[in-house]
Amino acid sequence: MRIRQRLAAATLVATLLAQPLWAADARAQETRAREASAATQFATGFASFIVSPVYGGFQVAMAFIGCFVGGATWIFSGADTAAASKVWNPTMKGTYVISPEHLRGEQPIQFLGPR
Q1: Does 24 score more than 60 pLDDT?
Q2: Which of the residues 3, 27, 29, 63 has the least number of beta carbons within 10 Å of its own beta carbon?
């Protein structure tokens, strides 16, 4: 029985002595993760800043075309708003600005809106 008590005491002492080492390692890992996170956030933010005007330009051009084609559909269908909406919704709705969430895959990019 004495051996078990000594072994338990030695294990307890070793665990308590190693605790600061584990805490320091955890803090170092947390710091590295924060730095990597900041770098990733900067990179995705900068990429969205560069990509958004180009993508948004194409999206706005698509919306203008859809506006005129939908208007023509509305006129030639005898003011049928349902027919014009089938053109307006896909061409005028959707994502206009690419955010970092889009680049990380957290939100979908919708070039064409709902039909």
Answers
A1: no
A2: 3
